[in-house]
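STRUCTURE REQUEST FORM
Protein name: Histidine kinase
Source organism: Aequorivita vitellina
Requested output: structure tokens
Priority: standard
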Amino acid sequence: MKNLLFIFLAVALFCSANSFSQINRQSENRPFMLRGEVVDGETNMPISKVNVEILGGQYTTTNLSGRFAISAKIGDELVIKSDDFVTVYYTIDKDDFVTVRVEKALGDTAPPLSKSEQKNKPNNFNTYLDSAKFYLKKDAQKSIEFVTRALEPGRNKNISKTENSLAFETLGDINLFWNQPDLAVDNYKRSLQNASNPNISIKLAKAFAQNKSYQESISTYENLLRGSLSPYQKVEVYEGLGDTFKAIGDGVKSVFNYQRGLDVAKENSITSKITNLNSKIGEAYAKSGALNEAETYFDNSLKLAKKENKERAVSEKNKVADFYNQNREYKKEIELREETLQELKTLGEGVAVENEALTSQRQNYKIANAFVAQEKYKEAIPYLEKSIAEANKAEDLVVQKDAVRKLSEIYRDIGEFDKATESYQRYVEVVDELYVKKEQEISQAARFSKEITQKQNRIISLENDRKLNESRYKLAFENQELIERNSQIQKWVIISLGIIVLLLVFAAYSQYKNVKQQKFANNLLALKSLRSQMNPHFIFNALNSVNSFIAVNDERAANKYLTDFSLLMRSVLENSEEDFIPLEKEIELLELYTKLEHFRFKDKFEYKISVDENINLNDFVIPPMLLQPYVENAVWHGLRYKEEKGLLEINFKSIDAKTVKITIVDNGIGREKSKEFKTENQKKQKSKGMGNTQRRIGILNKMYKDKIAVNVENAFVVDSQRDGEGTKVELILKKD
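Status: completed
Returned output:
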């Protein structure tokens, strides 16, 4: 029994742990509202109306303060776009306020697209290029494949010179990132052949330097300085010259160019470059042995980096720590590396850093080396053990190998030969594993390089095919021009005939339109005339009611009736010029009118008005005073002659979203008996109210395509107390 209980508890704990881990994974991938700002990289001024989107997701723009808010998840790619600056791609790695600095796209001297190029511009070119940039640092082959798709010829698809330049620039960026500078040089050159752009020339110079073509790099940079550059571009050129001279061991020229770049950056408040250049000048001085000058610039870079962001500050602390190590100031080095370790913990494991030294295992290894240099072996051992454990966890065999070897040497030097032997055996195992891994990496690199070269050759082939197609197109275009010149006269004749036909059609259409407008105007005039007849008729009937109260000396009733009557008349006169009023207003008028009639004939009938709650009264319109004649007819010709008390029901019911049915039912004497009560004079006269209403409905249905339908029939009302034929009026009102 106890065993069963133990098994049950173990299963329950396992399930709850799994569910808890699933909840954690779901919460980590839960969308959140990412907030940030877009600022000019040179002036730090906010930029409004910038397109901000999540790749394949939501879209927004920055406000007047350069701020934005967008729903995102960890790992999403944020794309910042505008015609005024270079597109920025930013991978979201935490829920924090994001500041995006952009570089203005100055100096683009590429020719504008012609009308034919704009007309035939492929809609999917930018999509493919954006996809290539998205995968640039993740998957080189996929990124190049998207560039290939962008350049592939297709039906009605012409690639402009500007687009061709962008495609080869993107290829160069891919090659440079994946350490293929020779291919990068070739692609940047092709990009510049299509459109001259200082930014691409700067990238070309960097590719030359990375490919160890130092003289070509220096020449490209110097040519750029002779042209027109933005302040940011000038800083990049001077920085690139400094990097190139540093690579060939010319420390004086390296520092000279770094210093010129630093001066331009300070003049234009380019903060990020000021930090970088202070750091690089410090490195150049340290390399040439000018340690005091190097320390001054490293102190500057360290202070400036702390004002930027934690990642930049950690990177700079690592550089300065390396300098202290070179200068044998081990205490300062250890302090900085301890700070770096703490900050790496706060930054988390997801921080993307290009410098491999910015890992906790390498920092621990370097701290241990600093202790070993001071012959403090016991202090070094814990750091080496941490380095080995973290390197093993991160599968960093290089650091693990160095740390295990160093630990073996320390144990040997302090006389603990058993531990030294054990560590050395671990060192041999790691070296063997590293050897196998390096062989695999070399094989993969060779295969990767081969595949990339094949894709590059395919793109060059596509480019050559495109040029050949352009030549064929040019020849076909010239032949087409010759054919068009020969048939020009024939075309002019056809065009002239077409114009004559169009003029005749236009004249006929204008005549038809004028006739239609005249009919419409006549209908409006008729409606106005009928409305003008309705008002006197209604007023005459109402005054008769007032006269009847006065005749029986019921002044109080007459006064009350006149008060309500004046309210009704004011509403009627306000709507007298309108073709249509909201259904809600018509119901209010009808309620007021029915109340007046009930006030006079309260002994003759009761009334009930019901409105369906599903009807949106403001969505429907109706001609003013359209329903009043039917109610008046029900009261005066049906209910007034009943001996017992009658009932008048008015219902407004929704048939669907665009149709309302209005029903007016009375249980009066009916139409046939009503005719018997008419005098000879009344029989000769036709009912003004009903006749005008029928004519109004007829005209409105002609003008607005059967907007209103009316049906009048016998109601056949029967109940336990009274029966009668009654009258039922059904009116269908349509929304449009």
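Reviewer notes: The chain has five domains: 1-28, 31-105, 123-210, 230-348, 525-734. Residues 1-28, 106-122, 349-353 have pLDDT under 50 and may be disordered.
Form closed.
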